[in-house]
Records
---
Amino acid sequence: MADRQTNSIWSHLDGDAFEGPLTGTGMDFIPLIHTTWEEWQSLHPDTTVLSYDTDFQAQYRSVTLGMPNGRFARQLLTVDDRLQSEALVLGVMVEDAFVAYPVSELEQTSGVINENVAGIPIVVFYDIDNNAAIAFSRVVDGEEAQFELMPGDSFLARDSVGGALWDFEGRSVGGDGSLEFVTSYLSEWYGWSAYHPATTIYAYVLP
């Protein structure tokens, strides 16, 4: 991607400029949830929807996704075969540490993983009903908390510090607090590992 103001070239997976006047600059990440329309409506009932009826139809084109035939695949310098190339992972970045949480492993958990990455306490939320995953800081009111998933139809996690409930977006239920977002997003393995070759893999055991 290139910005129109400086014509700097940006990486689409890690948000860093690698060519042009802004080389070395990094974009800020914001939380992005991969979820269903039903769940999104329950979280944000006043949401608006992007219209398909625009004046830019000529700029739309079909793209080839995935590792086998995509243009990105032909540009890879390395291929990491620890996972299947198109395995879906939650990529987590904490300082200079990178961890991939395979969705196949997240499916085997309760939906909440209390972790430490680069010495930083984080929690990974996984909503199996919507195949969604995201990471936050485990620090609540200045204390390191443990989280557990509560039974029920909606995703709610309870912290061990004050017993507060938190929704999937890290918002306090019945309060005004929010958990600090930890840079994380869903990606296919070949893309994540190509940009972050030093990544570790959650629950990965060397063959």
Note: Residues 82-207 form a domain with the Rieske Iron-sulfur Protein fold (CATH 2.102.10).
---
Amino acid sequence: MKFLYLLAQSAYFWLAGIIYLISMEGIALYYQYVLQFYPCALCVQVRAWVVGAIFSSVAGLYFRSNFWIRFLCLTLTLACISGGLYTSNYAWGVENGTVISTCSMGAGFPGFMPLDEWLPFFFGANGPCGQSPIMWFGFSMVESLLVTLGLPCVVLALLWFLHFPHAVASYVKLMRAQ
């Protein structure tokens, strides 16, 4: 367990996560611009979650030696990956007909952060929901997202739970000192 706790302090851990997430975005862009499979609203929302995880992972890499900022970065990265996993699960339900959705051509970003207007080449939703392309091993892109986001979510949750007791103990120590 100590190895896993120390893993979050390693630059290699954060770099591997950043490379992994950037690779996911690169594959999505390859499918969009080379293979002409345009993303739906749910797909670009997953992209936004992954970009959020990239930013929090970059901060985690830079501040990995500071416990509180590392804990915050683990929390934010876990939240972003979980958000992407939730959205992917919803998209999987739409794809399989278990969720009835009125998925429109718009990306559905909030008015204060219209990513589809700011970066339409990256966050523009031009494809229909429920029709993701087939990828490796016969999985659809949405099914692949469930795996490629699910595994990091489990690892990050484990690391977060290993950091949590230290956070509580540190907070209690701080409160007693006052």
Note: The chain has a mean pLDDT of 89.
---
Amino acid sequence: MCHRPIREISLFDFAFGAKSICFKCYLGLDPKFQHWEEDGVKFTSLYPYLEEYQSLLYLYKGCGDIELSKCFLERAMPYLKLRYRDYILIPAPSHFTKIATRGFDHVPLMFEGIGKKMVSLIEKTCDIKQSDLGKKERAKVGSMLRLRATPSLRKEKILFVDDVYTTGSTARACLSLIKQLHPKKLEAFVMAKVPKNRKELTAR
């Protein structure tokens, strides 16, 4: 993240097993887990959507620095591998034109390191940014999404994953589609959540 060399062997590597970031960057990305529930689905977020995360996401997603995909989950990886060990991941979709322009699908890459099966089951039919939509238009985001296929998920535990939670419109729309496939269990994990108040900034 800081473009400085990482020593191949150090006490930091031995203690924490970090492979993608240096000690300074490791401390800079400070996880603050938040948990909440919406429509019967448990949500978890890793970071508050503040400057450190925003800058990293911009370099990765906006500037196409694909190597940064490994950094986001570095500190939380052991926990996530254990917590979601028997889940199938379904990532939030990007429109195919965005993927073609960027050269990669950013959400699946962010979560690839967990090492779990991942299925891109949902697709975006319109290339529209949520930030360009008003409150009423965001509520209709479900009309811009559809299932690529309709497999039965009755025996599967599903984890929906995304990079940012703002109003939750996209997450709720995606989860509504997944619910149609009747998963055995359904949860959601977002990399960062826009904080609503000071209390959320100090959550652990």
Note: Residues 25 and 90 are 28 Å apart (CA to CA).
